[in-house]
Amino acid sequence: MSVLDNFEQWKDFLGDRLHQAQENGVPDSTINELAYEVGEHLATQVDAKNDEEAMLRDLWNVASEEERHVIANMMVKLVQNEGTGQ
Question: pTM of the full predicted structure?
């Protein structure tokens, strides 16, 4: 089963990657830009595996570029306290 199949596992996965990046000194601006790029990739290249992903894809698709950056930043905040180390 892929981490994309279950939204809670997906958030844990993202939380772990976020914490790794922060521990390695990656600036928040870089993390937020990577989150934007991941959001863009998922919205255009990956089929939603659950209702949460479908909703995020639909929001992404109707959002302006500025709003997409906001969505990406909110996803970073959402997973801040997620992950296997939390």
Answer: 0.81
